[in-house]
Amino acid sequence: MRKAFCLVILALAGMGCPTLHAAETGEPVVAADHEQYEQMVARAIGYLTAKAQAEDGSFSSQAGPAVTALVATAALRHGRTPSDPLVAKALQYLDQFVQSDGGIYRTGSLYGNYETSIAIVCYTAANADGRYNERLKEAEAFLTGLQWDEGEGKDPSDPAYGGAGYGKSKRPDLSNTQFFVDALRVLGNDENSEAIQRALIFVSRCQNLETEHNTTPFAAKNPDGGFYYTPAAGGSSMAGVTPEGGLRSYGSMTYAGLKSMIYAGLGADDPRVKAAVKWIEKHYDLKSNPGMGEAGLYYYYHTFAKALDAMKYDVFVDAEGVRHDWRAELRDELARRQLPDGSWVNDADRWMEGDPSLVTAYALLTLAYCKPQPKADG
Question: What is the pTM of this model?
Answer without folding.
Answer: 0.90
